[in-house]
Design a protein that fits this description.
Shape: elongated
Number of strands: 0
Mean pLDDT: 82
Low-confidence stretches: none
Number of domains: 2
Largest sheet: none
Length: 170
């Protein structure tokens, strides 16, 4: 079995993908923590790295996956505490070591804010579709009605012609 869905190569590629994804998310987390520390420094506040770690661990603990997703109990508070502790420590060290780092002026993730844009886009699209469908249905009805009137008119005209021909002297 080579290269198939159940092969070692497939599992290796899947692992590679998640390793890259995990690494990029870990970098993002560290950068965001540094950004928070920079913002606090610019606004005359002191960064409490231990509180940041505890807050993140508490948020992750509140979002523990259900047993159906983590039936083997691979994720727990201890794991979160160790991983987040190491990441916050790395962010703290980077922040202390590289004070000349480019300052982040504003939060770069505006997409994290709640947005109803797609909801309203869907509603507008649905309304437009309903109006368009209704308009087309109405036009088909009118054209069909006119067609029936035309057929009635032609039939009436033919009847009158036959009547005139029958009444005409021979």
């Amino acid at each position: 079995m080579t290269g198939g869905a159940g092969s070692e190569e497939c599992w290796s590629k899947t692992s590679d993908y998640f390793q890259i994804s995990l690494l990029s998310q870990l970098r993002n987390f560290v950068n965001i923590e540094i950004g928070i520390a920079q913002w606090k420094r610019q606004n005359g506040q002191e960064m409490d790295w231990e509180a940041a770690r505890e807050d993140t661990v508490a948020k992750m603990d509140a979002e523990l996956p259900p047993d159906i997703e983590d039936e083997d109990g691979l994720t727990d508070l201890d794991l979160y505490s160790k991983v987040i502790g190491a990441l916050v420590k790395a962010a703290h060290e980077q922040f202390d070591k590289n004070s000349s780092r480019e300052t982040i002026v504003e939060c770069p993730h505006g997409c994290e804010k709640s947005s109803d844009w797609f909801f309203w886009l869907f509603c507008t699209s649905a309304m437009f579709t309903l109006f368009l469908t209704g308009g087309i249905g109405f036009m088909v009805y009118i054209l069909d009605y006119q067609s029936c009137d035309y057929v009635d008119l032609v039939q009436e005209t033919q009847k009158q012609k036959k009547k005139k021909q029958a009444q005409a002297p021979k």
